[in-house]
Design goal:
Blueprint lengths: L1 E7 L17 E2 L2 E2 H9 L7 E5 L3 H4 L9 E4 L6 H7 L1 H7 L2 E7 L7 H13 L4 E7 L8 E4 L5 E5 L6 H4 L3 E10 H4 L19 H9 L4 E4 L12 H21 L3 E2 L6 E2 L4 E2 L4 E2 L4 E3 L3 E2 L4 E2 L4 E3 L2 E2 L4 E2 L4 E3 L1 E3 L4 E2 L4 E2 L3 E3 L4 E13 L4 E13 L4 E2 L4 E3 L9 E3 L4 E2 L4 E3 L2 E3 L4 E2 L4 E2 L8 E2 L11 H12 L5
């Protein structure tokens, strides 16, 4: 039978107490929902329906890269009502096996779900749910079983009696079912509960009454099924993901000196021998090759750093490719489109943007290199600025190989400098410089002998005598 995944993501998330819809909250570089969809796509390339409602205009665009189909639920009257909204889409697909998951559980262990799905397909039950054994079941629906142990129903915490609240076997909100067995039962749902909603969980009691009870698959790691309902649970879930990522990189030969302070997003790739100090953040698709060292409090986003490169303290590197063997920072900022070769040195307060730097280029202090190409072996003196913007357009600065740029030089782009040329300190380069030439623009220095002495004498004459 055809397989379909449904994600419920229409709720507001009242308990988050946030103007932002719950599934739009950040989750290690993406939103909660994107993280979940990415992970679901690793086990399923068939139809993926996402029920949207609250802030649907912001949620729906996130579905596009995952080829997921938005199903509008308006208004949002509960999880059962959310499945009702999928009715037309499901009848169009035809009889199918559905895996339904809540949109607020981004850590779901999808390999286990895949295994459960295969068990479900092989058995004849109309519905299987995932059961969690929780030391603290607060907030979850409790699973009710009869004397023979068969699943009889699910009672939400708010509707539960005191004895029911002590049940520690709870509902993960994850279900497998065959659409023909369940869609008809949705007509039986009522809103006679504390929240006045159509509970999907009530389907389980309907099945119990019909004599074809649901079955429960026990989760091997219940924590991974946690739903995020509050800001504190969001931080808890992020902490769990963060810890599992740092642990797996350590197991793969990466040295992380202070793992509780290090932030490695899921898209990061690290090679053995990488050394990360306290407070390092690696974001997006950042990749570090062997023996790269990143010192405290540096942040790298979407960078590819070549073997053996040292990134010193407090750098911010974005969209940068460099190495091997570069030395960057401290306090260096490289922006989108920075491509640096081998052995490049970029020191403190150097900013680069769309800059292509050949092997062994050095810019060690206080510079801005934007829309610039610098040939290999060139040296950029302190305080060098590419004046790349005329207020309307950006213009390129192109330096050849082994160019020596003296301190406090401005390149008024567009401008080109040939190989082996020298630029004298303090020069404003407005015209192209040929290879092997010296360019210098500096007003001649004037010496006025004894000037300071005369100035002092003048101010002595003017000052009242306090002595
Ligand atoms: C739900 C289950 C509960 C289970 C828990 C597991 C019900 C009634 N309760 O409770 O048994 O233990 O999940 O995490 O199903 N949603 C919609 N439309 C709506 C309402 C909700 O799409 O009208 C979505 C929400 O956006 C959310 C998911 O469904 O992603 C679950 O809703 P939520 O309110 O978080 O349910 P819980 O109270 O956690
Ligand atoms: Ca929830």
């Amino acid at each position: 039978m055809k397989r379909v995944i449904i994600v419920l993501a229409a709720g507001q998330g009242t308990r988050m107490k946030s103007p932002r819809a719950k599934v739009l909250h950040p989750f290690m570089g993406r939103t909660i929902l994107e993280h979940l969809l990415e992970s679901l796509r690793t086990i399923h390339d068939g139809p993926l329906l996402v029920v949207v409602g609250h802030q649907a205009n912001l949620v729906a665009p996130l579905l596009v890269p995952f080829k997921a189909v938005p199903i509008l639920q308006e208004p949002q009257q509960g999880t059962g009502h959310a499945l009702m909204a999928c009715g037309p889409a499901l009848s169009e697909i035809g009889p199918c096996e559905v895996l339904l998951v809540p949109g607020d559980a981004p850590l779901l262990p999808v390999p286990e779900l895949d295994a459960f799905w295969n068990i479900f397909s092989a058995q004849g039950h109309p519905l299987a749910l995932v059961a969690l054994e929780m030391a603290n079941p607060t907030g979850y629906g409790r699973i009710l079983r009869n004397a023979a142990g068969a699943v009889e129903g699910i009672v939400e915490e708010r509707d539960a009696t005191q004895p029911q609240r002590s049940i520690r076997e709870v509902n993960a909100g994850v279900y497998f079912f065959r659409s023909p067995d369940i869609l008809g039962l949705l007509d039986e749902l009522r809103t006679n509960n504390v929240q006045g909603e159509y509970y999907l969980t009530d389907v389980v009691a309907e099945l119990g009454r019909s004599g074809r009870p649901a079955v429960a698959f026990p989760a091997s790691a219940p924590d991974l099924y946690m739903g995020i309902n509050s800001q504190e649970e969001l931080a808890l879930a992020i902490g769990r993901l963060r810890q599992s990522l740092t642990r797996s990189w350590m197991a793969a030969g990466v040295t992380i000196l202070d793992p509780s302070t290090v932030w490695l997003e899921p898209g990061v790739r690290l090679e053995p021998g990488v050394l990360l100090h306290s407070g390092v953040h690696l974001c997006g698709e950042t990749r570090l090759e062997r023996n790269v060292e990143v010192r405290p409090y540096s942040v790298l986003r979407s960078c590819h750093i070549g073997e053996g490169t040292l990134v010193r303290e407090h750098c911010v590197l974005e969209g940068t490719r460099c190495g091997p063997g570069c030395i960057i920072g401290p306090f260096c900022r490289t922006r989108e489109g920075t491509v640096a070769g081998a052995g490049v040195h970029l020191g403190n307060f150097v900013e680069t943007k769309k800059a292509s730097l050949g092997d062994r280029v050095k810019a060690n202090h206080l510079s801005y290199l934007g829309d610039a190409t610098v040939g290999e072996g060139s040296n950029i003196g302190a305080g060098t600025i590419t004046c790349n913007y005329d207020g309307v357009n950006k213009h390129p600065t192109v330096l050849g190989e082994r160019v020596f740029v003296g301190s406090d030089t401005q390149f008024v782009a567009p401008v080109k400098v040939g190989d082996d040329a020298y630029i004298g300190a303090g020069t404003t380069v407005t015209k192209d410089v040929p290879a092997l030439a010296l360019a210098i623009s500096r007003s001649p220095q004037k010496i006025v002998e004894g000037w300071a002495e005369r100035k002092r004498a003048r101010s002595r004459d003017r000052k009242p005598d306090h002595a």
